[in-house]
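Figure 6 in text form: structure in, sequence out.
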């Protein structure tokens, strides 16, 4: 980064903090920003701030939303007695694209004791409260098919089963270690259809 003016360096640095953006991409984005019309970049900056200020977590399912409850939780046509548990909002969106029409609960992470992430750091307590409070027939655990995702699924099923709710785990016709976010609709559809009791 030698030879670059300080504001350019700073911009590259900030952009590099975004997920999936390495220094090379950050540099490309920086030059794109610098060569774009000022109004376009003002619009981009404003849009980022607006989104930050207007988006919050739904107090029921913890989806990102500009209303509380979110559009899914407040939609009376949803099969409210089935709750699909996902790791993050991207996974929720992937299931939405697959045509799943139950409701969701977003954990915002998975158990990772080595990184110091325990049940109290996820929305697990809220899930238990929800199952107690709402009429829930089935909880479908749709965490990723990797070690942390599996450990989280087992932990949650041990908590919920004694409460008398049906707990299922989605099936995977794909190798362990793959990412729900990037699975196509058909695969996710099949995963829900082939779910099994846990
Ligand atoms: Zn919600």
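Output sequence:
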């Amino acid at each position: 980064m030698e030879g670059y003016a300080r504001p350019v360096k700073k911009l590259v640095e900030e952009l590099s903090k975004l997920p999936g953006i390495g220094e090379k991409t950050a540099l490309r984005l920086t030059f794109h920003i610098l060569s774009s019309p000022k109004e376009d970049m003002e619009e981009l900056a404003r849009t980022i701030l607006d989104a930050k200020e207007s988006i919050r977590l739904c107090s029921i399912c913890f989806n990102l939303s500009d209303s509380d409850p979110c559009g899914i939780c407040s939609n009376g046509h949803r099969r409210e007695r089935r709750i699909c548990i996902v790791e993050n909002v991207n996974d929720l969106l992937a299931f939405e694209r697959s045509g799943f029409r139950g409701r969701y609960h977003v954990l915002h992470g998975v158990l990772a004791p080595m990184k110091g992430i325990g049940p109290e750091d996820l929305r697990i307590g809220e899930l238990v409260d929800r199952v107690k409070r709402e009429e829930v027939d089935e909880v479908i655990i749709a965490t990723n098919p990797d070690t942390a995702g599996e450990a989280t699924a087992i932990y949650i099923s041990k908590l919920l089963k004694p409460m008398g709710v049906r707990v299922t785990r989605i099936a995977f016709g794909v190798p362990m270690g793959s990412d729900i976010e990037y699975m196509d609709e058909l695969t996710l559809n099949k995963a829900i259809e082939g779910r099994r009791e846990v």
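Caption detail: The helical segments are 6-16, 23-35, 38-54, 89-98, 124-133, 147-160, 185-193.
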